Amino acid sequence: MSDETRIDPGEWDRILDDCDGYQLIVAGPGTGKTEFLVRRVARIVEMEKAPRDGVLVLTFSRRAARSIGDRIAHRLGQSTMPVEATTFHSLALGVLESATGGAAPTPLTTPEQVATVRDLLGSEDESNWPVSYRGILATPGFAEEVADFVLRCSERLLTPTDLEAMARERADWRGLPGFYERYLKHLEKAGRVDYGSLLVQAVAQLERGPNGAGDGIGYSYVLVDEYQDTSPAQARISDLLSAPSGNLTVTGDPYQSIYSFRGAELRNIDEFLRRHDGKRIVLGRSFRVPEEILSSALRIVRAGDLPGAAGPVESAPHQGRVECYIFDQETAEAEWIAGQVDRAIRVEGIDPGSIAILMRSKQEMLNEMSRSLARRRIPHDRPDRRLIDHPAVRLIADLVEIAATEGASRSGSDSVFETEGADAAARRLLLGPLIGLSLGAQRGLTSLRRQGMPWREVFATTESLADFGGLIGDVDWATAMPAIEGFWHVWTSLPHFGEIVAHPDRADWRRAYSSFAQVLDRQADRDPGLSLAGFFEVAEDESFEATPLITHTNDGPAVALTTLHQAKGLEFDVVFIANAVEGVFPDLRRSRRMLRPELLSPERTTDASAVSAFQIQEEMRLAYTAMTRARSRVVWTATDAGVDQGERRPSRFLLAASGNTTLEGLGSPRHEELEPVSLAEAEIALRRIAADPIAPAPARTAAVSILARSSRGAWDARYFRGVAPPGPDRPILGSVFSMSPSQADGYTRCPRRYAVERRLRLGDPTSPYMTTGSLIHKALELAEGKLIGTGVSHGDVDDALAALRSQWEAADFGSGPLNRAWLARAEKIVRSLYEKWPASSSPAVKLEQEVEMEIDGVTWYGVIDRLEESAKGHRVVDYKTGTQYPTVDDAAVSIQLGFYALAVNAEEGPNVVAAELWYPATRAKSLTIRKLDLGRLDEVEQAMRDITSLVASEDWRPQVSSACNRCAIKSSCPAWPEGRGAYLS
Ligand code: SF4
Hints:
The strands form five sheets. This protein has a seven-stranded parallel beta sheet with strand order 1-9-2-8-7-3-4, with helices on both faces. Strands 12-17-16-13-15-14 form a six-stranded parallel beta sheet, sandwiched between helices. Strands 18, 19, 20, 21, 22 and 23 form a six-stranded mixed beta sheet that branches. The protein folds into six domains: 2-102 and 215-283, Rossmann fold (3-Layer(aba) Sandwich), CATH 3.40.50; 109-193; 321-384 and 557-670, P-loop containing nucleotide triphosphate hydrolases (Rossmann fold, 3-Layer(aba) Sandwich), CATH 3.40.50; 387-550, no CATH class; 676-765 and 955-980, no CATH class; 768-952, Lambda Exonuclease, Chain A (Alpha-Beta Complex), CATH 3.90.320. By secondary structure, the chain is of the alpha/beta class. Helix 29 (679-691) packs across helix 30 (697-714), helix 31 crosses helix 32 and helix 33 (768-785) crosses helix 35. 46% of the residues lie in helices and 13% in strands. Bound molecules: iron/sulfur cluster. Iron/sulfur cluster binds next to helix 32.
């Protein structure tokens, strides 16, 4: 028996106090589900229904558990006895520890579990397996499949015998039941447990005891968050824990069930009130999602079959909007989104942390989007950024590498690291922020090393580096001590760490070290003997990034650039759902796994139409969940490549969200983009129209006339961004900015134009020449990229031309004839390059290599077109597709080449032997090459310092030259009569 109560926020108090028995709280997006849970726990304690340690809150991630625990503590006031908020896995480990007196098995990390499965598969009798798997049993890919499959079995509480019965119906599962049994026995013998069998063992332990485990694990009240995401094992644990008291509250939203691939069973929520006689309470009003967004999201999900659904909640009273746009290419889509984000932050004043750009898959468009944001200097977090790649942690890794290598060489043992790697690590350390030597001083020390002196002695030659010498001379902290102790040993041995993290600009370093310590702590739970050297070896495994704590965030608020799944549970003001094209979203591929573990669920069948219906419904729920993260604005974007390339068609979800029945009318937002929403933007838009040669003459005249009137008082030039005189009260750089060689070049030509075009990003600096150059670079990257690692010095002209033509397919120079004309020009350049390819060239080791280095606290970044390697060292090459080239003397101190050489030297050791600009578009018989004088690197470094300092001082004086005649902002340049009219004074 059950009854249903739908409540508004005003009725919460009454329901919160009625906390006994079994209760299913159905809570739609933004209805205050977590707040309800927190307040219910507080009421249980305040009404003295149970002591604090008699209440348990279960959730899925450590982050959620910590957040709920903090909120409960805040509500109840600090106490030495907090209410326990934890994850299912931590709880399960606690149950086993309690039952075994602290001798519970150690959980395997994901990479460890896959490695264990792979080892066992390597010794399998192949004849037990289907023929199609016999050749791949010991491969990493198959090991991952099997590792995931056995986890899914455990989460469903399936024994090897259960699996054997199921495998009788599926020939492709032959081999799995026997393996599953051997795998579980192996774990038991080794005293280890995976995340699935951890839950199974906890269930068994709880079932054995009359009251919990019969040894003190029993709670008067159990509360479970996000119940729609529970697996059968997790639902069983919730039931067993609450069985003695009969007090179990679960909260969930069937519309947000999106984790079936991770073992979540949606029917858990549907069957809750069939298993228990209890109440169903629906939180009826959303505090976050306004009508426009909610009704649009419901249009998508409406066709879905949702067991246990509560029906639509009432929307929040504020206004929202949903927009849908279609672009002709991904680059245009990404650029437009980045522009909109930029505008939202700068013009509308929205905090970057309140903006999300979500995509269905990490594989698609994420890099393109990240580059578009980076070009605009918009801080953003990517889901795949790894903590171990953070410079703060890399520094520890470098110290470990040097110490471990030197220690191994002293003892004559093998090291997991190589001497060359340790040398490169030492050079990074010397030049990095912890030590910060000049290049000259670093070279001096490196030359001692080249003469055969070990690094510990090299460091000891300099008084200020004696601490480092002592640390490197003692290898125990790196290879013998537990990792966390090794880390604190480094920390306390080098006072430099304290100084560096105390710096106000190094908040992200502080956060990175704090996360690093947490990760080491967690790792110690699993493998107490793991050293720092062992940790970094494990962490280099790509799948290690799956550990949530391994990600780190930017310094300060950042736009979330992430997947739709990872946005679950978060909320934003503005949400972009990008790359919404059929084939990507919805993702209806037959199965993401070869072994099809989803068929372990009794709900699932091999019937094609049922499989497809299940998949589309979960994708609908994913769309609903993503849209309802937004408080005020949702923007769907997609590309439409046209009838010829039918695979890039806008998603059916985009159409449903728009409310349209056809895609007609969902065009590019170009015109809307031009509509100003502020005074500053109005002036910018008018300036653009006035200066736009293809705008209609009446529009240009009208724009000039409005601007002329405005200068007599209607507008205030102080708010006209880009022409206001610079001053300390109106800096345009912000406290953090970066530089690049092309920025330095722009600044040197004219600081005024640089500030307006590059820093304020007014005007359009792109041209067909730049587009052509960029497409040629992409084609060369494609053609030459195939040869990396082959030892061949360069590719074939036909391959390069084919790559070039493929790039042109998506290019748009304005018309078909123009496209063909620019392609012909590009082909000529590419042919010329391959005909004149220098004989001295060596095989490339990297293409389009991103590099960066710090100059006086400012990061310089750049991309090296081609990095060659020969026995002598590295050669840096930059292709130039223009016909103008510098003099030999100017190139000798080229900032671009000098910066690349300095950055490569810093990263790889001082072994750049040449840095060259290649000009294939000139008419010379052989390739026109301009070279850097490597003996003048100190001069280049000084020039970089000078320009950094000038830019930092915000000196934007105009520099009149013959280039003024082609300058797009001449009409607002104070150096010219027509530009002075832009000022009031
Ligand atoms: S008109 Fe000349 S001086 Fe003025 S901003 Fe443009 S390039 Fe610089």
